[in-house]
Design brief:
With about 525 residues, this protein is an alpha+beta fold. It is about 40% helix and about 15% strand. The chain has helices at about 15-20, 55-60, 65-70, 70-75, 145-160, 205-215, 220-235, 235-240, 245-270, 320-335, 345-370, 375-390, 395-405, 425-450, 450-460, 470-480, 485-495; strands spanning about 1-5, 35-40, 50-55, 80, 90, 95, 100-105, 110-115, 125-130, 170-180, 190-200, 275, 295. It binds adenosine-5'-triphosphate and magnesium ion. Adenosine-5'-triphosphate (ATP) binds near residues 106, 109 and 136. Pfam families: SelO.
């Protein structure tokens, strides 16, 4: 591995310094006990080539444009070279997958490079996804394919610009190597181009990091991790007069994890995002959206929809269940940390904080999406009735809410939202019901006596014009697989300003075309990535 300093970053690797690690280094697959991480270097790839980067993320890290376009940048973020201060490792975690305890999982293809300290002093962990085998790779290859890397790269940044708490993406690098995948697990493996995304977040700690020491009854390790997480990632709690307060501090921390998770999920529901694999190993302790695998975006409003074909049977991770699944995941975390409490009942306050925060955020979303000054109890019912109508009549969620601002509340009609319907017959059949709902909504809006321009602005800031529709991402992927990366750049550009009207870019704010209804990648995704 080559060393050098092309990319100017300063590292302070507290996770490695302050927490116990695995004495063995390298990728030999193994159970790792008594340790929270294992040193392992990325496996170099044949021909690193930068395909795309996030200008915002690079700026935040203090990486200049000239550095980005040097070959050295692609080498570093493909795992072929290290910047001084980088100390690659894989984290050790477990998880509940589809409701069942799965034992040790860990970073099987993610390799953290270190904790970069930005100019403002913020801490940003840099992590390569697809960087080669680690002790946690089990039977898999440690790699990622281009299609899934494009999806992770674009969605991380799209979510950020939508105001949804998320891990970020700095770069997308082609490896010049093929990766063999059986996309639908149907016995048809084929070679696909490989790629690596460099993800960025203040921390990649997950619920599963806490569950594993609990499952192994390693309480000292569990306590060390909780204390470290508070000290490093929740400094405001630590400084809040609870120093050394043990259980009270832990309980305050748990409640904040719960609150942040509620905020995150409420945003998902606001923008129509379906995560697809809400296993506890994919739940960030910081309340960030993590692991952009078989995720999808709601086209026609359907609370029962999941894009994940691996979950087609029970549809555990369907859109409408996300709030309760997140709650269940938090009960797993509560369980995991319960041995640290003389009376674990205190953790119920944290779970209650989840419920309260979700209700609060959801009501805030309702008010903003419907253009109301504040959400009253009756408005929650109004929103529920709308959801039923949208689902029954097969109406596009994004288009409908965006167009709702165009309905004249003095004389409400269906015309401004008519283009959001996928089916003409269903539109005709549901017109009276929608007419009735729009009339009641308009009457409710009039009660607020808010300036129409201000109301419109507020609605537009909650109802995005542009989301990363599944078929749009797939079109960019199809082009990229043919060697044309421009579609990825174009989508990234559009998704940088999702709430703005962007004249000339109307093609990105259309209903899902018919051909995309049942096409792989557009409505169905497996975990094969
Ligand atoms: N190609 C692979 N090689 C090795 N391990 C893998 C691979 N794909 C997934 N895993 C591992 O399988 C487990 C569950 O996979 P999941 O699909 O949730 O994660 P992921 O997409 O790889 O990563 P992340 O959660 O880091 O975004 C994790 O331990 C993950 O590291
Ligand atoms: Mg994962």
């Amino acid at each position: 591995m080559r060393h050098g300093a092309p990319v100017n970053l300063h590292f302070d690797n507290r996770f490695l310094r302050e927490l116990p690690g695995d004495p063995e280094t390298g990728p030999r697959v193994r159970q790792v006990e008594g340790a929270l991480w294992s040193r392992v270097a990325p496996t170099p790839v044949a021909a690193p080539r930068l395909l795309a980067h996030s200008a915002e993320m690079a700026r935040t890290l203090g990486i200049g444009e000239a550095e980005i376009h040097a070959q050295r940048f692609a080498d570093v973020f493909a795992g072929n070279a290290l910047v001084p201060g980088m100390e690659p490792y894989a984290a050790n975690y477990g998880g509940h997958q589809f409701g069942h305890w799965a034992g040790q999982l860990g970073d099987g293809r993610a390799i953290s490079l270190g904790e970069a300290i930005a100019h403002g002093g913020e801490r940003w962990e840099l992590q390569l996804k697809g960087a080669g085998p680690t002790p946690y790779s089990r039977t898999a290859d440690g790699r990622a394919v281009l299609r899934s890397s494009i999806r992770e790269f674009l969605c991380s940044e799209a979510m950020h610009h939508l105001g949804v708490p998320t891990t970020r993406a700095l770069s997308l690098v082609a490896t010049g190597e093929a990766v063999v995948r059986d996309m639908f697990y149907d016995g048809h493996p084929r070679p696909e181009p490989g790629a690596i995304v460099c993800r960025v977040a203040p921390s990649f700690l997950r619920v599963g990091n806490f569950e594993l020491p609990y499952a192994r009854n390693d309480l000292p390790l569990l306590r060390q991790l909780v204390e470290f997480c508070i000290r490093r990632d929740f400094t405001h709690i630590e400084g809040g007069g609870l120093e050394g307060a043990g259980e009270a501090l832990y309980a305050a921390w748990f409640a904040e994890v719960c609150t942040r998770t509620a905020v995150m999920v409420a945003h998902w529901m606001r923008v129509g995002f379906v995560h697809g694999v809400m296993n506890t190993d994919n739940m960030s302790i910081l309340g960030l959206t993590i692991d952009y695998g078989p995720y999808g975006w709601i086209d026609n409003y359907d609370p029962d929809w999941t894009p994940n074909t691996t979950d087609a049977q029970g549809r555990r991770y369907r859109f409408g269940w996300q709030p309760k699944i997140a709650y269940w995941n938090l009960t797993r975390l509560a369980h995991a940390i319960s041995p640290l409490f003389a009376d674990p009942q205190v953790l119920n306050a944290g779970l209650q904080a989840y419920a309260d925060a979700y209700t609060r955020e959801d009501r805030d979303s309702i008010a903003r999406k419907l253009g109301l000054a504040a959400c009253r109890d009756a408005d929650v019912e109004l929103a529920k009735e709308l959801h039923v109508l949208l689902a029954d009549a097969e109406v596009d969620m994004t288009l409908f809410f965006r167009a709702l601002a165009d309905v004249d509340v003095a004389v409400p009609t269906l015309a401004p939202v008519a283009h959001a319907f996928y089916d003409d017959d269903k539109r005709e059949a549901s017109a009276p019901a929608f007419g009735d709902w729009l009339a009641r909504h308009a009457a409710r809006v009039r009660e607020d006596a808010v300036d129409p321009a201000a109301r419109r602005q507020r609605m537009n800031a909650a109802n995005p014009k542009y989301v990363l529709r599944n078929y749009l991402a797939q079109q960019a992927i199809d082009r990229a697989e043919q060697g044309d990366i421009a579609g990825v750049h174009e989508l990234l550009e559009v998704m940088r300003r999702p709430y703005d009207e962007q004249p000339g870019r109307e093609a990105f704010a259309q209903p899902r075309p018919d051909w995309a209804r049942q096409k792989a990648g557009c409505s169905m995704l497996s975990c094969s990535s």
